[in-house]
Amino acid sequence: MERLIAIERESDIPAAYRGNPVGDLLRFHNLGVEGGEYERAELLVGMCMDHRKRLRMPERFAYVVRTGGGNLRFSEFKVSFAIAVGGVRAIALVAHSQCGMAGVTGRREQFVRGLVEGAGWSVEQAGEQFDEFAPRFEIGNEIDFVLSEARRLRERYPKVAVGALYYRVEDNRLYALRGDG
Asked: How many Cβ atoms sit within 10 Å of the Cβ of residue 90?
């Protein structure tokens, strides 16, 4: 966990995030700072669909796109829309501990069995879906993935501030990451 930067006070927020909506998210979530009222979103948050995470932030502060692993590769139109039409100028990518998309390609048997028993699929149907999609959604190590995804989005949207964060399910806190930026 030497890659995590704990945010316990304002001075812990990395300089790159201070004064922008990524830093504000850290202040709202970790420090309990109350936000004002927002007429429009200032931030796009890309995070996992996992049910164990809930960010503390004001209403209308952010668009939130939830996908398996927080992987925005297949949600890029939504990102572009939030920037072009919604006017956001910052993105916070949030990876998390215990992510099911980290190592998803090793869960074929569980996946197939779950669809057969829970959805009434045939073994063949379930296996075909897994084989087609699991490699696309595999993220590997959560921290490495979110850092690489932040780099990719910075190249794609050079005028947009992009921050890579990590949510520890174990303590419900957001962390900045060493090596981001």
From this structure: 22
Taking the C-alpha atoms of residue 132 and residue 136, their distance in angstroms, rounded to an integer, is: 8
The pLDDT value recorded for residue 58 is: 95
Element (H, E) at 76: helix 76-84
Which pLDDT does position 179 carry in this prediction?
84
Closest CA to 93 of 160, 147, 46: 46
- C-alpha–C-alpha distance, residues 161 and 69, integer Å: 21
DSSP string, 85-115: TT---EEEEEEETT-TTTTGGG-HHHHHHHH
What are the DSSP calls for 113-161, one per residue? HHHHHHH---HHHHHHHHHHHHHHH---SHHHHHHHHHHHHHHHSTTSE
Q: How many residues does the chain have?
A: 181
* Dihedral sign for Cα atoms in the order 6, 181, 59, 95: negative
Which tokens is 157 given? 């949207």
Going by C-beta distance under 8 Å and a sequence separation of 6 or more, which residues neighbour residue 114?
126
Taking the whole predicted model, whether its pTM rises above 0.90 is answered as yes
What values do phi and psi take at 65, rounded to 5?
-110, 120
Q: What is the pLDDT of residues 104-144, one digit of tens each?
A: 999 999 999 999 999 999 999 999 999 999 999 999 999 99
